[in-house]
Amino acid sequence: MCRNAYRVALADARDAGTTTLATVERVRWGIIGVGDVTEGKSGPGFQRAERSELVAVMRRSGDLAADYARRHGVPRWYSDADELINDPDVDAVYVATPPDSHRDYVLRVARAGKPVYVEKPMARTAAECEEMISACEAAGVDLFVAYYRRAMPRFATVKGLLTSGRIGELRSVVIRNERPAPADGTGSEGWRVDPTISGGGHFVDLGSHTLDLLDWLLGPVTHASGVATNRGGRYPAEDLVTAALTFRSGVQGVGLWSYDSSQYTDEVEVVGTEGSLRFSCFAGEPLRLVTADRTEEIEAPYPEVVQLPLIQAVVDALTGVGASPSDGRSAVRTARVIDRLLSGYRESHGITYSSP
């Protein structure tokens, strides 16, 4: 692919009045923020996906960026995000920084006329997500979000079982995600429990995955109500959330997310008129299908690189051979649900977000 192939094709797409570009033959990626998530969950996916290569990485610490590039065989590294964004050999950008910077980086990538793949949660609030969507639509570039469970074979198996009629007509779903507080009792869990950076606590970090997955499995949430509190007092974010949910499919749901618990629990159970399907959202143990006459365990392991299936779908979308199941428009729905469930907590604790 020539140096400016994406920009030339983008100009052609704009002249034709289209906003989706799918004409490049190979996507050359740059990553902003090569932290832990890029070591195994995502970074290698850009190198292993077909018609994809990782050509540049950025981290504010140049030494750490250089170390990542050396260890992963990436040709170039930067300590300045704009240098990576404007590198003519970078066709698309993956933003893997904490959520408080997602909006800013996505807007900058959009101004450069390049598609962007951003980590989840998409941003701290739905309002920030809407800004990102508007900027990308105005620039005529694609915006994808790393809710990668939508593309994993494990959850394609779940979806197939739910739509097959094996458990009858779907009626309800129960979500439980619990974990104990850190053993040292300090609450030293970094930015993930600082709502000014993350938008909330572990509920936002982990619960967003489950809520987005259920959006894909059961349809968008049409009603959400709940209560968020902090019972452990170890950090400023919520550590206990309960919710009542209604999905467009008519399924009714309840959820419990507790991060000051005595136990580890990771369970989603969908109940139908003829049985139930129980599965973990964050681990790879077998799915459990229960009907009147039998209980069946179905193997559905995680891939080695968990984001690879979605990265491949994104590359397919950009190269015109497929589509991505996760984009800005699907991801903002989960942000709206989280906003609704955390609104009371944010208000009572004076947590606000404003544009820079």
Structural class by secondary-structure content: alpha/beta
H-E order: HEHHEHEHEHEHEHEHHEEEEEEEHH
The overall number of domains is 2
CATH structural architecture of the largest domain: 2-Layer Sandwich
Task: Detail the poorly predicted runs.
Answer: 1-22
Count the beta strands: 14
Major sheet attributes? 8 strands, mixed
* Overall pLDDT level: 93
What's the end-to-end separation, in Å? 37 Å
* Superfamily (CATH H level) name of the largest domain: Dihydrodipicolinate Reductase, domain 2
CATH topology of the largest domain: Dihydrodipicolinate Reductase, domain 2
Q: Write out the strand line-up for the largest beta sheet, numbering strands in chain order.
A: 8-9-10-7-11-12-13-14
Helix content: 25-40%
Strand residue content: 15-25%
The global form is globular
Question: In CATH, what is the class of the largest domain?
Answer: Alpha Beta
Summarize the topology.
Layout: H1 5-15, E1 27-32, H2 37-40, H3 43-48, E2 52-58, H4 62-72, E3 76-78, H5 81-85, E4 92-95, H6 102-111, E5 116-118, H7 126-139, E6 143-145, H8 153-163, E7 170-178, H9 195-198, H10 202-218, E8 221-229, E9 240-247, E10 252-258, E11 265-272, E12 275-279, E13 287-291, E14 295-298, H11 308-318, H12 328-348
Parallel strand pairs: 1-2, 1-4, 2-3, 4-5, 5-6, 7-10
Antiparallel strand pairs: 7-11, 8-9, 9-10, 11-12, 12-13, 13-14
Helix pairs in contact: 6-7, 7-12, 10-12
